[in-house]
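REQUEST FORM: STRUCTURE PREDICTION
Request ID: SP-0412
Submitted by: Lab K.M.
Chain count: 1
Length (residues): 431
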Amino acid sequence: MILARLPLLAMLLLSPAVAGAAFPPLQPLVDATEEGGTLAPPPGTYSGPVVVDKPMVIDGRGQVTIDGGGKGTVILLDTDGATIKNLHLTNSGDSVNDIDAGVQVRGNYNVIKDNVIDDCLFGIDLQQSNNNIVRRNRISSKLEFGLGQRGDSVRLWYSFGNKITDNVTTDVRDMVVWYSADNVIARNRGSNSRYSLHFMYSRYNLVEDNHYVNNAVGIFLMYSDSVVVRNNHIAHAVGPTGVGIGFKETSDLTIENNEILYCASGLYIDVSPYQPDTTNRFRGNLIAYNGIGIRFLNDWKGNIFEKNQFVDNLTQIVVSGGGTANRNHWQGNYWSDYTGFDLDEDGIGDTPYELYAYADRLWQDQPYAQFFKGSPLLEVLDFLERLAPFSEPRLLVRDDKPWVHTLAKVEVEKKTEEMDAFELLKQSLEN
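STATUS: Completed
RESULT:
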């Protein structure tokens, strides 16, 4: 049932209490809609805030804007089984304490889809809300704020079984999953933000087929065990703290078939896996054209690296503070700097791949020397150290069965990367 309710709207416009307002309020139309009904307001702009406290559908059909007036949250879903779709939500408040958002969800089995949410501090906030669907929304924060002062595109707090899929987010702070389990984050596109996706104390989540470009950090998992991260494209996480995928005290992970390109550090590993007798499994990932392929913050163990491709990273592996990465399991990976042969043509190098720490320790140990990282000067020093080392070099990695042939997708990656960036820019302009 569609409640156009033109007579009611006309009465609202003529009401003394509303006549002075910039836009007519949407709340009376929501209140007049029966439980389980559908509200499709006449095209135009309405004022918020709006509270939905019963199962119903609000369908803007791409022609309705709800303006929060710069105060509070635009729509509060305080119910189960409601649907909010095809709306333009804008101009929330700017209170971080109150989590002023485009949509606050405080219920279960709701659907928020096909909305444009802009000039809202937070996009969609779910608290203690389960089995909701957040799909195909386009979300940005308040552009006048600095990156750290903006809100998150989607925020899950103690929420389970939700599906966050096919959203496009830009110019927000993070997308966060805190104290939440069994959620699916899939096929989202994120750019020009801080953390594309940030986990804290959140187990058993699935992250797949996302596209994250030009963010400070791609994906970071902290104290979040048994997460599956697969088939994601992460690129251009640059700057002093730029990381493709980072891990802190996180165990029992499956990290497979991801593309991590052009980042300051492709992978960042800090005391992971953390739980005794667990492993983290890295398989089939392309780690290419990064400043550092993998940065281990310490000498750790328990990670399994198989069938990954390390292609043209300026430095393949770094272990901060000394030590080695060789206490982890390395087998069957492709290394672009491997200098061995494959005389029996079985696709596996005849000799192991071995990576030693030589003069590159200079830029790791001396902060000011980082300016010269990759320069001819350090390359010459590194070459001389290999010819006649002043001290015994330290073995960082040994792969007994290195691949000698890479996959075709590596060869075309540089060509397609610019096309992906162009497509993302085109989508932003269209939005």
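NOTES: The CA atoms of residues 142 and 269 lie 33 Å apart.
Reviewed by: T.R.
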